[in-house]
Amino acid sequence: MRKAERILRNREDAVDVVQSLFADLIARREDAVDLPYLYRAITNRALNLLRDAHGRARLLEREQASLAPTARVPTATRVIGLDLLGRLCDQLDGNHRDVLVARYLDELTQDEIAELYGVSRKTVGKRLARVDALAAELARGAA
Amino acid sequence: MTAACIDQPVSWLRLERLALGDLDAAGATQVGAHLAACPACAAAYARITEDARPLPPLRVAVVAPPPWWRSWRWTGGGLALAVAAAVALVVVRPTRPPAVPAGAVRVKGAGLVEVTVVRERAGEIRFDPDDVAPDDRWKLQVTCAPGGRAWIDVAVYQGREVGFPLPPQPIACGNTVVVPGAFRITAGGAELCVAVTGAGPPDRARLTAGDRGGVVCRTLRAAQ
Question: B131-132 and B169-172: which strand pairing?
């Protein structure tokens, strides 16, 4: 639930995403899921909502600042707002979106991201570099 | 809310695992030492431990009487079967595709798709209701044969206005699959239509134009 809130920035949509996930899990009779699986599944569902133009407009309307990530990452790295997150999602593929959320919203280390998604640390580094470059480009464009 | 960590922050996943007691002893000790020295991560951990909110409870549903075709299947099944057998003996007719019951559509790739509209009003859940109030929360359930896939889109018609409160989305068929997302209908009575397609998202231009092919609609009057 907290994870969904960090992406969507409002409680109502976060509840919907979490409840629909659990409804599907119950329907599929899957009861042996762990926290990393739930993290990945919530990321997918929340980003699908954010990527839809109508869903994004509603999320921006309902955005609650108190649900933003804590931004504990060192000052050299950036804080991703909901609007920028949406624009990044428009231009990144699924693998890069996963890394984006894991790094900047869930504040996972590169090793943790590699383990969560079953890829090498080098791959995570490359994807993060692409995310950073695009975020910088979009930020420059917005300025 | 910005509070920089003293070093590499402990991830939310790791903090959640600590709160759940899911970390091994070495991991818990390592995270504990970091939290003792880092106010930012300690504050994040406090956010987790102080946030023991349950999801909204599932309430007992108020179920509308089942449509005739469902009760017929169970309660009148034997009688109906006898009648059908008698008719079959007397009349030989070419076979026709089975009729599609109200509240359902037949689409390629998913077969018969039955749509249920769910309303939550002040904590009370009602299926396929007839009226709408501005504070009602609406969701959809879909039932179709497992293995199939369908696309679902919702259109709300009010006068000449048509709105699409949810993104079109694909669902994997099953029994009472909950369509992700909820919405509200403001400004009084409406016609709530659910478009179902097999291959790709429903055509919103057609829906806007009022095309009702492959669409299940329900008229909702404004609640008194």
Answer: unpaired
